[in-house]
From TrEMBL:
Record keywords, A-Z: Hydrolase, Magnesium, Metal-binding, Nucleotide metabolism, Nucleotide-binding
Function: Pyrophosphatase that catalyzes the hydrolysis of nucleoside triphosphates to their monophosphate derivatives, with a high preference for the non-canonical purine nucleotides XTP (xanthosine triphosphate), dITP (deoxyinosine triphosphate) and ITP. Seems to function as a house-cleaning enzyme that removes non-canonical purine nucleotides from the nucleotide pool, thus preventing their incorporation into DNA/RNA and avoiding chromosomal lesions.
Record: active site: 73
Quaternary context: Homodimer.
Pfam family, one: Ham1p_like
Family listed: Belongs to the HAM1 NTPase family.
Origin: domain of life: Bacteria
Protein name per Swiss-Prot or TrEMBL: dITP/XTP pyrophosphatase
Binding site for Mg(2+): 42, 73
InterPro entries given in the database record: dITP/XTP_pyrophosphatase, ITPase-like_fam, RdgB/HAM1
Annotated NCBIfam families: PRK14822.1 (NF011397), RdgB/HAM1 family non-canonical purine NTP pyrophosphatase (TIGR00042)
Entry binding sites for substrate: 9-14, 74, 156-159, 179, 184-185
Annotated cofactor note: Binds 1 Mg(2+) ion per subunit.
Length: 204
């Protein structure tokens, strides 16, 4: 029997990636829009986990606790900025989702900073609500360095500034396939896949 899993997002790329990684399970994966959820969720938590749980729980309750709900919260953590932008990554410059202004602010704050201060990591926390008292939590991350200028054609978020030494490229220079196979979200999803496998085995 195919079960519905609702992702607390309308981000097409995110949902496509989730579908690919969880393809082996009998799940129909839907966005909020596809299942008729049109609500604003104030992401005012102080941690990625708080925000992810709030999104998942809000949608889970809105749907009458009838479907599994998955939510994530992700962000960039920069050593020389005491962990900023952190949970404020999407609205670092004040306007939600303005990638250009966010990147400009990040570069400005890191001007004349040394190499160690530019060390950074992308972190993704995921919460999957399976039932009233059944919740899975996983986290994935990848380490990198903030460049002094944008590099690459992929202009999404901080990707043009996030350099991954092992690949000698920024996220902005990588193909979508490569980035999606090594990203913080991909790593969180792979952990989620393992935890889901354990959950399903217990239910059989």
């Amino acid at each position: 029997m195919v079960k519905k899993l609702v992702v607390a997002s309308n981000n097409y790329n995110k949902i496509r990636e989730i579908k690919q990684i969880l393809a082996q399970y009998p799940l129909e994966i839907l966005s909020m829009g596809e299942i008729g959820v049109n609500i604003d969720i104030d992401e005012n938590g102080t941690t990625f986990l708080e925000n992810a749980y709030k999104k998942a729980k809000t949608v889970y309750d809105f749907l009458g606790r009838k479907f599994m709900v998955l939510a994530d919260d992700s962000g960039l953590i920069v050593k020389g900025l005491n962990g900023e932008p952190g949970v404020h990554s999407a609205r670092f410059a004040g306007e939600h989702g303005n990638d250009k202004k966010n990147n400009e602010k990040l570069l400005k704050l890191l001007e004349n900073k040394n190499r160690e201060s530019r060390n950074a990591r992308f972190l993704c926390t995921m919460v999957l609500i399976l039932g009233v008292d059944e919740v899975l939590e996983v986290q994935g991350e990848i380490e990198g360095i903030i460049c002094e200028e944008e590099r690459g054609n992929n202009r999404f978020g901080y990707d043009p500034l996030f350099y991954v030494p092992e690949y000698n490229m920024t996220f902005g220079e990588m193909s979508a396939e490569l980035k999606n196979s090594i990203s913080h979200r991909a790593r969180a999803l792979k952990k989620l896949k393992i935890e889901m496998g354990k959950y399903i085995e217990k239910k059989v």
